[in-house]
Amino acid sequence: MEQPSAIIKNTEDHLKIYILILNEVLGKKPIFHSYLNFCKLVGEDTMNYPDFEFWYYRFYRLYRGELDDCDQIINPVRKTIMDMPVSLMYKITENLDTVERTYLRSMNKCLKDIVDCHPPSFDVIETSTDNKSLNWKLNNKSFSCGLNDYGSCSLKILDSTIIRNECYFKKGMEYLSPVLKMPNLKVNHLTLNIMNGCTYLNDLLPIPFHAKTMNPGELESIDFSNYDIGYTATREDVLEFYETEQFKQANRVESNIYLYEIDLIKFSHLKTFKFRLNFRELVDFQMIRDMISTFENFESCELKSINNRDGFDMRTVAEDLGAEIPFGPLKTITHRYQTPKSKNHLEFKIEEEESSCLIKIVKVR
């Protein structure tokens, strides 16, 4: 309870007001109903509710014959949210959504420990960055931090906008990093979109973020198709990517990385994949066919190559696979290959586009 305001101590009618409050106490009505009745008699502006509460309970103690320690009443020890029972705080946080709990845990260690009792589960985490902004989405709530017209950064958190004279990327990561650090984090759909020319590429995830705790199949897909790394990634980069836990756990992978036939040995766990073929060297399509036919989890794939060299066109690919090629102009060639020692077969659909050759392979059971 707060100390009563000056309006009660200085008013000429204070004695009448005290009597009215005492009458409410003697009427043994709930305090809120007593306050409403009091306001009907003297007006809503005469006394606010905290002041009424102070005098109501002071008279109530006197009526019960209790000692009136005025100092303790006027200056009570303030209660905070941390004075609530842990079980009640757990129940409250249980009814918050994952995004609300994420920011509640940043307030203090006690709240953080209680929030962390609820395993964080996001359906969607989307992150994109370029040289002017960092944007992220947690489920259906969007956040951003980017450069404004005045050279400072604008941080948009839910319905509020905060202006800071700081690096937009550093400020944005102060809010995004704690989300990715949450213990036992579960994400159904994770998207990282790094725009070309972004100088903060290496700092996007400055904290450990691995798929090692995932069970096989929990990482559904990896998609690098919107980021043209085909020309920028070195062979060492590609081989390192194939050895990551994320790639080994994924079911589906789509990328602009150029694929060599020998790389397919790393793909046996995938259900589907889309890659570019290395067009700078001759491609052994029979080797690709024979390797894919041994993949137990395989469902389909798309392999695409730039058709800018002699010997790499639709007919050449079909001949290499042993397909029958009809006479005359063709847009598509379809070929079926019986998988050895199996009732399954692979269906090849070879399409020639304006500047590329597209090979679609599907396992037919």
TrEMBL record:
TM annotation in the entry: none
Record domain Mos1 transposase HTH: where: 20-60
InterPro entries (alphabetical): DUF38/FTH_CAE_spp, FB224, Mos1_HTH
GO biological process: innate immune response
Residue span, DUF38 domain: 183-305
Protein name, as recorded: F-box domain-containing protein
Originating species: Caenorhabditis nigoni
